[in-house]
Amino acid sequence: MTFIFNYSRLTAVFPDRFRHAIILPIHKKGDKSVKSNYRPISLLLSCSKILETIMFNRLYQYVHTDAILAPEQFSFRKESNIEKAVFSLTDSVLTSLNL
């Protein structure tokens, strides 16, 4: 498995066999005979989840080590939330108005 993960990382190719999923309909609410009352759930191979986690950790480390994301980028970041974004925006507006 280590060879496959490393080879995938080096070649930037996600193995075709890891792309398969079993899709199951899960009932949401209402009448069970109505198709729109179901939502699909994809069951992925554990190998693809492991590879996804490895790639996420490497990409996350790269982006944060080299400071690629702008400080104003708040979404999809750890320890970042809407309150910090609103505070930053409010602070920059008040600073620009000299208040």
Whole-number tally of structural domains: 2
Main sheet: strands, sense, barrel: 2 strands, antiparallel
What's the N-to-C terminus distance? Answer: 59 Å
Give the strand line-up of the largest sheet.
Answer: 1-2
Q: Per the principal axes of the C-alpha atoms, what is the gross shape? A: flat
Pick out its properties.
99 residues, alpha+beta, two-stranded antiparallel ribbon, 3 helices
Provide an overview of this structure.
This protein has 99 residues and is α+β, with helices and mostly antiparallel strands. It has two domains: 2-68, no CATH class; 70-99. It is 45% helix and 14% strand. The chain has a two-stranded antiparallel sheet. The chain is flat. The protein starts with a helix and ends with a helix.
Please sum up the structure shown.
By secondary structure, the chain is α+β, with helices and mostly antiparallel strands.
Write the layout of secondary structure elements.
Layout: H1 2-11, E1 21-27, E2 38-44, H2 46-65, H3 82-96
Antiparallel strand pairs: 1-2
